[in-house]
């Protein structure tokens, strides 16, 4: 199968070699498209690779029936409608580590340039003016640098600024006292950072919660003469509020790499001599571009060829260690979900997954997702995948519960999937047998040992002589060969079950015939 890959922003040619090398990928590079132009052509593509200049709107996604993966060669994914991508089962991956160093170095360059007014002085010289008195700077040494958002880039900036003998005061909701101590910085509240810093550098993502984080009120808290650096995202700092704060003299200077609307040619902030700026260049180094392009290309190639991705944005990422433990259960979980969804009578209202034994010690969310995928695929087909299974379950209103216990229930690992409808609850349990693969070991209250594969018939009957024979004879009449048969019973002469694996699917007619047989109370044909 050949996949079509579209690249719409400039990516390092050396970095995309994983794409070029893959034999089953057709790569087209078409940069500078408008959103309308992208909407026109996107239906042909299986993968889309972008940087910050392409905006992937809901409309783009709704016009992309073949799109499976969006690769963001960089960190910020605020230019992608993640909700729409998830709803459509499109995985989004990014390259979170590749440009950290470049972004931190650019921030430091902006910090120094801002403190010493280097761009303004250079511009003056270019205009043939030898002016020394207008460009009196301030030292960084002993000043407080406030960092808002101490993630990868924020932490690298902190480390570098310490080298400039600055005091670092950082606010990040996830910053612990231990981490702050380890980094040799001070942890503060947002208010403390805003009110006590001489320089403030922003390093959060652009989220609902961080849009306009630095607004009029925030500026009012700051020291007079504060200087601001934003190399994170436009929109986190309110541009009108910044403009007013500079004009009023509250803010002595600002260094901006990012803007609310990009690109632009004219910007009112650039009319102010206190503002220095670069056109979103923090990640624009040879090294960062090669690195982010390699990372997303590798994920795109792997994903399109059925493999795993390293940096999913709209799926929880799973460490190698966890993947080693839970990965082998993926198929079993999906099969158990598919099994129980065919066993139930009515619309599923609640799915409860019990994880017993060793498995309970791990992050089992990928298994829950796979179970839900199995449950939903019967009705929704290929539209359901890992990315949207949980979303679709939520949309339909299915309550999903996950229980974990180290109790082993007789198996080192056991998964039990219960599905509740208005008509009752049905359940199926499965395990992985060392070297032998998955097994269904229990259906409702009956123990069985069945390979979860192919065509199955689940029959409830009375434990009476002749019941099994009658089933065999009827199937033989329809030329249906029985491959394996398991029988289980609650007590002698009481309720019992048969689980048959057969060589072809039994249709509705045969199922009804089976139901008519003496001592048979229920028949379900299951396809896995
Ligand atoms: N100008 C450029 O070329 C570049 C810009 N960026 C921007 O920088 C951002 C940060 O990148 P990384 O450090 O790699 O991401 P990261 O995810 O490692 O760090 C972001 C940090 O922000 C924190 N945060 C979230 N909400 C917050 C809030 N309300 N207040 C304070 N902190 C908050 C998070 O807890 C996290 O620690 C990216 O999302 C991207 O938008 C990244 C690379 C290059
Ligand atoms: O990685 C990020 O978040 C960036 O902002 C870098 O943007 P770019 O890839 O240079 O358009």
Automatic annotation (TrEMBL):
InterPro entries: ACT-like_dom_sf, ACT_dom, ASB_dom_sf, D-2-hydroxyacid_DH, D-isomer_2_OHA_DH_cat_dom, D-isomer_DH_CS, D-isomer_DH_CS1, D-isomer_DH_NAD-bd. Keywords: Amino-acid biosynthesis, NAD, Oxidoreductase, Serine biosynthesis. Its EC number is 1.1.1.95. Pathway: Amino-acid biosynthesis; L-serine biosynthesis; L-serine from 3-phospho-D-glycerate: step 1/3. It is an enzyme of class 1 (oxidoreductase). Pfam families: 2-Hacid_dh (PF00389), 2-Hacid_dh_C (PF02826), ACT (PF01842), PGDH_inter (PF19304). Residues 456-528 form the ACT domain. GO terms for biological process: L-serine biosynthetic process. It catalyses: (R)-2-hydroxyglutarate + NAD(+) = 2-oxoglutarate + NADH + H(+); (2R)-3-phosphoglycerate + NAD(+) = 3-phosphooxypyruvate + NADH + H(+). GO terms for molecular function: NAD binding; phosphoglycerate dehydrogenase activity. Catalyzes the reversible oxidation of 3-phospho-D-glycerate to 3-phosphonooxypyruvate, the first step of the phosphorylated L-serine biosynthesis pathway. Also catalyzes the reversible oxidation of 2-hydroxyglutarate to 2-oxoglutarate. Belongs to the D-isomer specific 2-hydroxyacid dehydrogenase family. This is D-3-phosphoglycerate dehydrogenase. It comes from Sporosarcina ureilytica.
